Amino acid sequence: MTRQRAAILQVLRSDKCHHTAEEIFDLAKEILPTISRATVYNNLKALEDEMLIRRIVTEEGGARYDSSYIPHGHLFCSECGGIFDFTIPEFHKAIEGAADCVVDSYELKIRGVCSACRKNA
Amino acid sequence: MTRQRAAILQVLRSDKCHHTAEEIFDLAKEILPTISRATVYNNLKALEDEMLIRRIVTEEGGARYDSSYIPHGHLFCSECGGIFDFTIPEFHKAIEGAADCVVDSYELKIRGVCSACRKNA
DNA sequence: TAATAAATCTAGAAACATTCTAAAATGTGA
DNA sequence: TCACATTTTAGAATGTTTCTAGATTTATTA
After folding, report:
1. pLDDT per residue over B53-83, tens digit each?
2. Half-sphere CA count of B1, side-chain side, radius 13 A
3. Cβ contact (<8 Å) for B88 and A94?
4. Would the CB atoms of A102 and B84 count as touching at under 8 Å?
């Protein structure tokens, strides 16, 4: 656990956003001004291997990082641009039946309108 | 509908693979040797806007193209590397309830072992 | 058919996110 | 402290996708 890795974890856990690598780099620089991009990428990869964070890929192809590794769904709101977490109970079993497979992990992305934006409309 | 676009659609519909843009470019070149990369990308984007094909992004961040636009799940087999389609009946309603949202589209990616690989093991 | 306009294509340059490389810095155990 | 392994840094390199400018094709009208 180096200072650099601690700074990256601190950034990830400071709020509930799902940041891009570049955003994490910028925020980590506020803590450690000399940190380099490669260090951010290396540590994000290491943290994902250690199952401490999860990398999620948006529909556009860019990566974002989730401070939790536990599999859950992500709602990408088309109104506010927010990314919201949710879980479906018994989801593993449902998709194992539908896909006829043993599920190691899953990533469910929804494009839609979140309840807050729906109420404001 | 130009010859180029027809060639790209022909490649996409010739088999059940989920090709990358580069693979589609190479295969389209066998039909139209002078076709350019930008044409392939432009047409893939146009075809997705027209809801004739669907772009899916892998866990690694690379894009692959599905010859069907109808939303369905994708199983990425960790043994054979194949990408397999599947559907879950009533899935829209289930995730709308769990995520408290109105679903426009979804993309469900599973990492696991397909039934064929499971039988061979 | 000829002239014109609009859309599309091509080739290569540019942009972007990510990975690699080699050297410098840091941490660890004897 | 010394040697060794690990990590970091800065910038170059890579791979994918987009942009650009000019050429080609297609469609339209006379």
Report:
1. 999 998 888 899 999 988 888 888 887 778 8
2. 6
3. yes
4. no
CA B30, CA A103: separation in Å to the nearest integer? Answer: 38
Residues B78 and A75: beta-carbon distance below 8 Å = no
User: A65 versus A85: which is more confidently predicted?
Assistant: A65
Domains A3-66 and A73-120 share a fold: no
- Chain B residues with CB under 8 Å of A57 CB are 57-61
- B→A interface, C-beta within 8 Å: 55, 57-63, 73, 75, 77-78, 84, 86-89, 94-96, 98-115, 118
C-alpha distance from A93 to closest chain B C-alpha (Å): 12
In the structure encoding, which two tokens stand for residue B76, read together? Answer: 């990425």
Is the CATH code 3.40.1160.10 the one for domain A73-120? no
A60 DSSP assignment = T
Q: For chain A, what are the domain ranges?
A: 3-66, 73-120
Q: Return the CATH architecture of domain A3-66.
A: Orthogonal Bundle (1.10)
